[in-house]
Design goal:
This protein folds into two domains: 64 residues; 142 residues, Orthogonal Bundle (Tetracycline Repressor, domain 2). Helix 2 crosses helix 3. The protein has ten helices and no strands. The protein is 77% helix and 0% strand. The protein is mainly α.
């Protein structure tokens, strides 16, 4: 969670160092408690949604061992909460993607690893089912806050910019953003259709060939 400062509270940074420390000491335990509560709620919601279980607010707070009051202290609505769960899942995806790219020996292998990690969310039966349950579990069905999606696209682009630069892109910032958007769109396309009639490896290879060809001819 974002740390609250005395400037946030008072609108000024003119307090003395000791006064600032005194205020911060009073805030820190509450911030830590709030962080623990939010972590428990998100984990409970993620586990319920991933399993396809009922995920009413009552179910979420019961699984987290908290109260309705606690839930609405941190989240405006269930839709707001689901966006937070989706966002947290995006962070986990990006961390996994970064590790795979860092371990790759060549730029092409890094891009292939990245494409595989992203597309696997829509192809692998177990992962795809969990992803569908999460992104389809809130208000509005499949959709979630555009800001959440935009932030995921930009974060993925920042991870992909290295191998895309090394593959010879003349405009790596734009190309990495386009690639991130393309991979996420293709993942979502696969997520919501019957994917039992084709080979996942072939799908990854096809889109990877398309991306590399575009980089070389751009």
């Amino acid at each position: 969670m974002t740390k609250v400062t005395t400037e946030d509270i008072t609108g000024t940074s003119s307090m003395s160092a000791r006064a600032t420390e005194a205020v911060q000491r009073s805030l820190t335990p509450r911030q830590e408690a709030a962080s623990r509560d939010v972590d428990r709620l998100i984990k409970a919601g993620r586990d319920l949604l991933t399993a396809g279980s009922p995920a009413r607010v009552a179910d979420i707070v019961a699984a987290a061992g908290l109260s309705n009051d606690a839930f609405y202290r941190y989240f405006r609505s269930k839709g707001d909460f689901v966006d937070a769960v989706v966002e947290e899942g995006g962070h986990r995806l990006v961390d996994h993607l970064r590790r795979k790219i860092d371990a790759a020996e060549t730029p092409e292998a890094a891009l292939r690893a990245g494409a595989t990690v992203i597309l696997r969310q829509g192809i692998d039966p177990e992962i795809a089912a969990a992803t569908r349950n999460v992104v389809g579990g809130g208000a509005g069905g499949r959709s979630h806050a555009p800001k959440v999606r935009e932030e995921l696209e930009l974060t993925l682009a920042r991870v992909l910019v290295g191998p895309i630069t090394d593959l010879g892109s003349t405009d790596p910032e734009r190309d990495s953003t386009t690639t991130a958007i393309l991979l996420l769109a293709q993942m979502e396309h696969l997520l919501w259709k019957d994917t039992t009639d084709f080979d996942p490896a072939t799908e990854v290879e096809h889109i990877l060939t398309y991306i590399i060809s575009a980089l070389h001819t751009g």
